[in-house]
Hints:
Blueprint (H helix, E strand, L loop, with lengths): L5 E5 L29 H12 L3 E5 L9 H4 L5 E4 L4 E4 L2 E5 L4 H14 L3 E4 L4 E4 L14 H7 L7 E5 H8 L2 H6 E5 L4 E6 L4 H12 L5 E6 L5 H4 L4 E4 L5 H6 L2 E2 L7 H8 L4
Amino acid sequence: MGNGTATVFFDIDGTLGWVDPAREDERPRWEQGLSPAPNDHVVGAVCALGHKGNRSFVCTGRPPGGIHPMISCMPFSGFVTLAGAYVTMGSRVLRNEPIPAELLDAVDRVLRKQGRGARLEGLQKVIEVRDGTDGRAARSAASMDEALRQQPSGRAYKVILPTAAADAVMADPGLARELSASALELGNSELGLASNTKKAGIRAVLSALGPDAGTTYGFGDAENDLPLFAEVDVRVAMGDAVDALKARADYVTGSVHEDGVVSGLAHFGLI
């Protein structure tokens, strides 16, 4: 802290922008499955943040391939993606921690007993397994192993599955030691390595920056941003954030619909 610069970490969904998951089909076809795009006010604020000599990073559970091109073109210094499993700063890869294949096979055995499918997230692609989470996906892989072979890198970082199936996976003590589960919208949850958190991703960034990081700030809205808050100096919750996050916040800004990122950055004199 205190070198006159700042490093700011931004969640995407509910922070930089918002798309109602229930209305995903109403988006243009090329945008479906991508993160929301920030509006012009938020884009301008992030640009102004950089113009004042500060750094900014995206900090999201989404994979790199699921980030809207508008965000990818903004002047971010790097990306903490897949909830900390894959972290980049410029052209450098700071962290790359996929789920081991044998662990995916163990999850798949539980899913088969449940008669459930899933989605396997890699860096760029999402592969459906046994008709996906809703049982309707076409051309899906028959197993995790087959889905893994369809990933360009041969690696996967998260499993999206019905919450009831995630509960069954986490009821296995051996799997619960290795994995963590987080609830999503529409009755689904995501599984990832317990060691992969936004906190771990931010720690990789701060280790690379060293003293140049300056004062660190984090903006978020959901429970999966609690690990983000645990690793920054100043915690900013969006106006419509969950209560648990607001309770940990140093400042509560406006909601995503009120351009809370803009007012929050202005409050701290960062723009």
